[in-house]
């Protein structure tokens, strides 16, 4: 098996495509099951955020795995595979490992250094674990990906400004509100993870008074109490929209919450930060007088100030070192089933010779038979110990994949491909 990551993000697709690709949280388990049912896909983890949909997979072949995953994403989104291909990025083998580590470190985010991706990756891994769609290879990749992300954020200044999609959107909003958001009244629609982040960010920025609404009133109440905001019933949305300067939309609704009919009734100017995918603001409402909509496309096209070059370089250095370590683990894992097969072959040879000996020497007592058996097995294991330890060490070094093949050739070992696939991912970039 080898690693393959396929996805679309703000870098490769516009919001209209991301909306069709986005996967509701409730649908992820079913999609994971669909993925691992494909001929070339053995393991899968799905990441779906406001600006990214990505599949991490362990596949038995590059072209077959690519075709299987593209077909599943095409079926899910309704976008023909030939059209979808132009919006996808693909990373294979070593490149997939590097991409995963850069992703968790915030280097591939819309807002460089944002830490929210760590939580999103953790949730994606947790879901895959519950569905049992992650095997040995993806378990190791995701655990190391999360560890590398934590290390990057704790050891460098990549996220010292506390940047996130919300802060970037507020920076753009400030440009439309005189440059200062202090004292501007705001409403957050949605009390999930992005809604909570929005409330926390708005509170720190000095926005207020701040109100929160959600279809589940109880969740809005809890969030409002936590940040000293005001919870308002969802049925009062139209009235509240007329009383605020800023609206942050962060719901999981599959249909627009702010329709054109609803927004046409407003007489006040309004800046809406639509951070939801699919969009909470109806596309046909954009352009209404007095309405400014800042969505994922707006943020992707804006050029926010990122971390200093020294900080990103420090993270890249961490990523490079961790990629080398992970590749060493992969190469070491490759030789493991071959070493096991060698020890099994040695045991089989000893057992066969013992049977021949005992048939020729029936006068041996049970105690004598046991002594001879233990001695022969011990001699063979001692002879194999040093070379097998050394071959594991050599296999973990660059170019070490040749040692497993050499052992198989020298000792005529038959290592099943399925066994190798579970523990022996090949190394290499996209063909």
Task: Please characterize this protein's 3D structure.
With 431 residues, this protein is of the alpha/beta class. The protein has 3 domains: 2-155, Beta Polymerase, domain 2 (2-Layer Sandwich); 165-301, NAD(P)-binding Rossmann-like Domain (Rossmann fold), CATH 3.40.50.720; 324-423, no CATH class. Helix content is 54%, strand content 12%. It has 17 helices and 10 strands. It has helices at residues 15-21, 28-36, 62-77, 81-84, 94-104, 116-131, 136-155, 165-176, 193-204, 217-227, 237-241, 260-264, 296-301, 309-360, 366-395, 401-410, 417-423, and strands at residues 2-9, 41-49, 52-59, 89-92, 186-189, 210-213, 230-231, 246-249, 270-274, 291-294. Strands 7-6-5-8-9-10 form a 6-stranded parallel sheet. Strands 2-3-1-4 form a 4-stranded antiparallel sheet, sandwiched between helices. Helix 5 packs across helix 7, helix 6 runs antiparallel to helix 7 (136-155) and helix 14 (309-360) packs antiparallel against helix 15. It is elongated.
Key terms:
single chain; 431 residues; alpha/beta; Beta Polymerase, domain 2; Rossmann fold; 3 domains; 6-stranded parallel beta sheet; 4-stranded antiparallel beta sheet; elongated; disordered C terminus
């Amino acid at each position: 098996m080898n690693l393959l990551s396929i996805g679309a993000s703000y870098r490769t697709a516009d919001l209209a495509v991301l909306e069709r690709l986005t996967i509701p949280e409730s649908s992820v388990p079913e999609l994971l099951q669909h993925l691992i049912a494909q001929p070339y896909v053995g393991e899968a983890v799905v990441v779906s955020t406001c600006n990214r949909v990505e599949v991490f997979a362990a596949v038995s072949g590059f072209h077959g795995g690519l075709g299987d995953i593209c077909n599943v994403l095409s079926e899910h989104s309704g976008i023909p595979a030939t059209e979808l291909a132009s919006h996808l990025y693909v990373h294979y083998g070593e490149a997939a490992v590097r991409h995963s580590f850069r992703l968790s470190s915030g280097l591939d985010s819309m807002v460089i250094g944002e830490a929210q991706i760590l939580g999103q990756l953790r949730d994606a891994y947790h879901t895959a674990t519950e569905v049992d769609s992650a095997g040995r290879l993806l378990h190791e990749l995701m655990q190391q990906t999360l560890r590398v992300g934590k290390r990057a954020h704790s050891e460098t200044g990549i996220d010292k400004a506390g940047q996130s999609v919300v802060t970037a959107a507020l920076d753009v909003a400030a440009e439309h509100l005189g440059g200062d958001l202090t004292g501007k009244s705001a409403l957050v629609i949605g009390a999930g993870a992005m809604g909570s982040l929005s409330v926390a960010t708005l509170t720190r920025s000095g926005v207020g008074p701040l109100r929160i609404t959600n279809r589940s009133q109880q969740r809005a109440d809890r969030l409002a109490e936590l940040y000293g905001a005001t919870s308002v019933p969802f049925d009062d949305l139209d009235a509240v929209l007329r009383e605020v300067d800023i609206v942050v939309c962060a719901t999981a609704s599959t249909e627009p919450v702010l329709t054109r009919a609803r927004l046409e009734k407003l007489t006040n100017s309004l800046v809406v930060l639509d951070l939801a995918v699919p969009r909470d603001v109806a596309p046909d409402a954009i352009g209404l007088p007095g309405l400014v909509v800042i969505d994922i496309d707006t943020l992707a096209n804006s050029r926010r100030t990122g971390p200093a070059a020294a900080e990103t370089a420090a993270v890249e250095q961490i990523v490079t070192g961790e990629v080398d370590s992970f590749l060493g683990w992969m190469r070491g894992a490759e030789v493991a089933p071959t070493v096991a097969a060698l020890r099994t072959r040695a045991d089989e040879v000893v057992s066969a010779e013992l049977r021949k000996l005992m048939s020729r020497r029936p006068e041996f007592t049970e105690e004598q038979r046991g002594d001879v058996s233990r001695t022969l097995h011990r001699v063979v294991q001692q002879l194999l110990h040093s070379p097998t330890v050394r071959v594991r060490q050599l296999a973990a070094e660059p170019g070490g994949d040749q040692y497993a093949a050499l052992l198989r050739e020298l000792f005529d070992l038959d290592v099943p491909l399925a066994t190798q696939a579970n523990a022996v991912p090949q190394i290499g970039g996209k063909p």
